[in-house]
Model the fold of this input.
Amino acid sequence: MKIDTSSAKQLCQYVSFHLTPELQAMLSTEQLGEILRLEPSQIVPIFDVPSAIVGVCNRRGEVLWIVDLACLVGLDPLFNQDCDRQYSIMILQKQNQIVGLAVSQVGQLVFCKASQIQPSQVDNIPPKLAFCLKGEKRSIYGKALLVLDEEKILELLSRQEN
Done:
């Protein structure tokens, strides 16, 4: 049996997650290192930093900065919604930058071709979210999955720090 490697190379792998209870998004797995589950008590708050920066946690003896992704892109802050539960932390690694992106729930792996990512049809997108948006992919049920750009997220985060 011969496998068609040209079509396999066109498929990209993403991980889906909830930005808000109603809004789903996905990030490419290329720059995602791992996904952690943390209790709010495991995150040490840092004061006098932008509101999207929640705090830090210990990851294998290293300090990992935790960023509320929803807050960063102009949506309702995740950590104001429900403090009695665990959060999913997606570790984003790009060159020498490592940051934990906090989201309420990680979904499943999504495979798609670049041609399946279309301009977004979602209404009322905040400007910061629009800046980080590559487009959207429709699920088999017709629900929009926003495709976010990891580099734009890091750029937006660096603007917050300045």
